[in-house]
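Input chain follows. Return structure tokens only.
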Amino acid sequence: MCLAVPGRIIAIEGKTATVDFGGVKRKVRLDLLPNVDVGDYVVVHTGFAIESLDEKRALEILEAWAGVGKFLEGR
């Protein structure tokens, strides 16, 4: 199974962005989404930003993931 995770772009240099995933920062390629800016949320899969999201939708997804984590901790 593969997961695509939302994160927020905090810096861009050329075709590479630094994306913050809740405190974990990773370098991400922007080849597939050339029109994103610092502050935008993107969905990342295997090191590539594959979709941009508005903040509301990104936060909904992150909240759902937090719920999954809480459920798994309680098992």
